[in-house]
Amino acid sequence: MDEDQVPSQIVPEAAPKRSFGDRLQSVKRTFFTKEGLIGDYDYAFLFKPNLPFMKSSNQASPFFGLNDRMPILLALLLGFQHSLAMLAGIITPPIIMAASVNLTQDQEQYLVSTALIVSGVLSMIQITRFHIFKTPYYIGTGLISVVGISFAIIPVASGAFKQMYDNGFCPKDPVTGVHLPCPDGYGAILGTAAVCALLEILISFLPPKVMLRIFPPIVTGPTVMLIGIHLIQSGFQNWAGGSGTCASNPVGDYALCPNIYAPHALPWGSPEFLGLGFAVFLTIILCERFGSPIMKSTSVVIGLLVGCIIAAATGYFDRSGIDTAPAVSFVWVHTFKLSIYGPLVLPLLAVYIICACEAIGDITATCDVSRLETEGKIYESRIQGGVLADGCIGVLAALCTITPMTTFAQNNGVIALTRCANRGAGYCCCFFLIIMGIFAKFAASLVAIPSSVIGGMTTFLFTSVAVSGMAIIARGVPFNRRNRFILTAGLAIGYGATMVPTYFDHVFSYSGDNKGLKGFLDAIELVMETGFAVTAFVSMILNLTLPAEIEDTNEAVPVRGAGSSVTGPHEAAPHDADRDSAASEGGKGGEKML
Questions:
Q1: Using an 8 Å Cβ cutoff, are 358 and 143 in contact?
Q2: Where are the transmembrane segments (predicted)?
């Protein structure tokens, strides 16, 4: 019996016990028969391009439910597709944050490798779903709910690093003022994130209806949109040559991008850099228009690959990092001194609230495309288990030297496109991510990609985050007078703080020796200069305090689901009407980005 047909109870009935002989026959049938290895799936469907002169097939491919038996080859193929769909979203945050805090090349390569490994390992927690003994609670969703680094941490970390360099927590060159490597700053992010993750763990024990009441689409939509808008600045700076010192302070070794010793160094904003990024951007568009289903769901990675080929052919690659990188890597090869940075506490609490909202929206979308119920006790237990797992994963990720992680949304598009919700494909995805991370040469190759190629990819990626926020608003917020007022008030300060992030620098003039007070004032400053945090707080307060007006009583009720991913270019919720379509919008922008 499929899981979507069982009664609405939190604890499903126990599966009948199978004898050793039955298990042996099952293993034999799976690994030693054509049906178990290959099956009769139409593999050509995944690779058939969408060319104008080719006739499209009207035959729908079979749907593989959560616990259905599926061929080994298909599980491996779709798992690899899931891993490619996640790849760009996983590697982007560590690359950006390593550049913001000027880590060494070895440390940057390590963070990329570890991000892949930790994503693969911790995704298994969500996919497996553990029942907490003698309680009605779970850890995990039991769905293909894969996790990656949340993009919400990037604006907070960038602002914190800037503040750390300004207040002396991180070192500067005394002559030129160039920012020096600050691994302790990254360690402060990790230590503070591990503590603040406890908030999301507590949120998971709230009834889902209460969570949706506190964090409705009118709060999460503009918040997600502003996260994307803030990130676009970093993506576009990289597109033009780099977002580091060569863009902000082009002197000395950084007069050219990425530096004067690079094999093909050019001034920031050179047309050659812009052309490389445009090649990536154009490839993504062509994959969406003419590509096969597997190309559409991995279009961002294909665009990155094409950009790398062009950059290598024209001499922009520096092989030194690849040649000196070790063959293999693993967690804790490099470590960072953990500490609590007081000014980061309030912003990181906001990040984990956003992560909880993302999880609710993404899990709802995953249930939808997996043909499972999106209401009732089993659904609510998946929400509770998913948010609890997200909080636990936040703690574990920090202890594994990686910033907060949350569920990814782009994999919902892969499920809708391939019609496969089987957890076997999810486990194969985890396997491929771990393998990619262990082979350090692969991470070194990703770190060596020129900034302009990364920028062409991340600009598309981050814009899709902003579009996801707009979609949350459009689908879940009736545009009556009250809601327009809440959106206007929330976005007014949020947009301002995003466009002019230094507006709050001179509000506090305290210069005494009280470090506690100084840290508290720095925390307020960091929150007020983080646009999405301001928007979230203002929208939440107004939504809870402003009464509904008389003309609002006949308005449509907002849809279920608190949010959508900020970690990729795909929206979270393909609905019943289109989830069976091979060109489903769920796979291309229509939780958990890329």
A1: no
A2: 72-97, 109-125, 137-157, 186-207, 214-232, 273-291, 298-317, 340-361, 425-447, 453-473, 485-504, 524-546
